[in-house]
Amino acid sequence: METVFLGIDIGTSGTKTLAIREDGTIIGKASAEYPCFAPRPLWSEQNPDDWYSAVVKTVRQVTASAGIAPSAVRGIGLSGQMHGSVFLDAAGKVIRPAILWNDQRTVAECAEIENAVGGRAELIRLAANPAMTGFTAPKILWLRKNEPESFSRTVKVLLPKDEIRRRLTGEFATEVSDASGTLLLDVANRRWSKPLLDALELDLSLLPEVFESEDVTGKLTAAAAEELGLTTDCVVVGGAGDCAAGAVGNGIARTGLLSTSIGTSGVMFVHSDSIKIDPNGRVHTFCHAVRGKWHMMGVSLCSGGSLQWFRGALCAELRAEAEKAGADVYDWLTKEAAQTPPGAEGLYFLPYLSGERTPHADPDARGAFIGLHLNHRRGHLVRALMEGVTYSLRDSLEIFRELGVPVDEIRASGGGSKSPFWRQMQADVFGRRVTTVNTDEGPAYGVALLAAVGGGVYPGIAEACEKAVSAVSGIEPDPAAARFYDNHYPVWHRLYPALKDDFKKMSGEL
Fold it and tell me: DSSP string of 243-256?
């Protein structure tokens, strides 16, 4: 009987589960959606029960569709949306809806954290990152200040995937990559930061034990095994936050490799053998899912989301035509963009429709088309939008270069990687060869490989990636286009500083 490992990714829009053989071959996958709630403007919450129901549903679908025997599943890896907060009482009951990574209610708490530790520079020294509204620590302080009765009942705070771990194994545990995004981890030493906890007057007992990503954190309980249709011999490994897990799925497990992902958000993720911290806090430094290693990461909040907005808000008639023709409206929009020249005849786009994280850390930043004139048509807008998103990713690449992090190969993933036009644009804007790999299953695949490591199939995740993940195609930059973008990127880069103060005034009008 073959041995099988599962990867489960607790995403914001839904959960994805896939099954792999020991060699990394995918033999089944399933997904299930659930709602996200916004009880107030800029708030974002979910019900953890929905996550677990989706886990049970997708695991059963995968094993049934692939004909996998219960005893064949030897390990599970967990991934999930980072930074979210699940508050539990002494009986293990969820106290209130989970507050998610994209929730923006904690601006005041971010300032409180920096003040409590003696300033932004000291916080970066302690946690390798500045305070951001999406992180976990500000959410805990928000609960203490605004829902004191709920806070008084809270005995544990878990990240989304770790709440699923608790329901599967009964264990309170997390791992270093996801814990890095709480703003409570000593990232350099891969353990909870006592100085930070003391400064914020938070007790260590609120937090779960921290493991490395490939470590076994428990086995399925009898109740969970029955619900999933598996056995209690199935181990659950630490897993990883979705960004680190997605990078592992792209094979980013050694020095010189960088992944660029254009999904709803955009991520530039680079492996580092040693810890490197940006003193200005423009990019994140987190523990990697590779044992004893780190990664640096830049995040653009609305990358593919900008194109999704454009399609939804401005292309209703085109969408209807595409549906009637059995075509994908994104393909039509991309074709129009490809028919316009680089630079979209002087049109620029700032993709800050949800504020921005890297490099500005500014929730008040706003999206903008700049340079419109009468000759511009829809294709120009789409091309400028795609270029603006790609420029925003280059912001992170420039910071990595400044900090001396080596980049030998760029691997593209996410929805943006499926478009040859957008891959070529990335190669041109970055001035580097951009490759794709033999799998594009994202975080679920990465943590399935981690489960295989925890199950003893591989000695480490780097070896698993070497075996299972390989580059299959590449696009070289067009020399003329690369020169063009090198000349125009600085123009685009100056637009945000010129508008920053006005963005803040605009935000006060919401």
Answer: HHHHHHHTT--STE
Instruction: Give the CATH number of the domain where residue 186 resides.
Output: 3.30.420.40
Dig out the tokens for 45 from the structure. Answer: 């919450």
Q: Distance between CA 141 and CA 128 in Å, rounded?
A: 20
Placement of tokens 């709803």 in the chain: 264
pTM for this entry: 0.90
- Domain assignment present for residue 471? The answer is no
> Containing domain of residue 44, as a range?
4-250
Digitized pLDDT (tens) for each residue of the chain, 510 residues in all: 689 999 999 999 899 999 999 999 999 999 999 999 999 988 999 999 999 999 999 999 999 999 999 999 999 999 999 999 999 999 999 999 999 998 989 999 999 999 999 999 999 999 999 999 889 999 999 999 999 999 999 999 999 999 999 999 999 999 999 999 999 999 999 999 999 999 999 999 999 999 999 999 999 999 999 999 999 999 999 999 999 999 999 999 999 999 998 988 899 999 999 999 999 999 999 999 999 999 999 999 899 999 999 999 999 999 999 999 999 999 999 999 999 999 999 999 999 998 898 999 888 899 999 999 999 999 999 999 999 999 999 999 999 999 999 999 999 987 777 899 999 999 999 999 999 998 888 899 999 999 999 999 999 999 999 999 988 889 999 999 999 999 999 999 999 999 999 998 887 765
Which of these, 309, 334, 510, lies nearest to 425 by C-alpha position? 334
Catalytic entry in 242, 278, 364, 395: 242
Let me know whether 173 and 317 are in one domain.
no
Same domain, 45 and 191: yes
Task: Mark whether 395 is an active-site residue.
Answer: no
Tell me: do 86 and 222 sit in the same domain. Answer: yes
Residue 426 and residue 412 in contact, taking contact as beta carbons nearer than 8 Å: yes
Domain count for the chain, please give it: 2
